[in-house]
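REVIEWER CHECKLIST
Item 1: Sequence provided? yes
Item 2: Single chain? yes
Item 3: Sequence as submitted:
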Amino acid sequence: MNAAEARAISNSNVSKLIEKKLGQAVIEINALIKNATKVGEFSINLRLTFPSVLKDEVIDKLVSHYKELDYEIGTRELSYSTLFTVSWEQE
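Item 4: Structure as written out by the authors:
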């Protein structure tokens, strides 16, 4: 297999990888929220690093997911990652 063939196969499977990374991030964020609530905190921060081909779509889906659950969401681009903030302080 040459690089062009490998790239074509990878590109055809990007949607699978997006769903996998999204699922992993949701599990991690939910665990952070659970732990934060147990100690009386009202927000969590998580540094997320994804390949550039996935980053925008995964971050957009995460924002939508947590906004649908009435959380306040913030994102900030860092050098090689995105800082994802979830807050539940405001009613």
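Item 5: Key structural point noted by reviewer: The mean pLDDT is 95.
Item 6: Recommendation: ____
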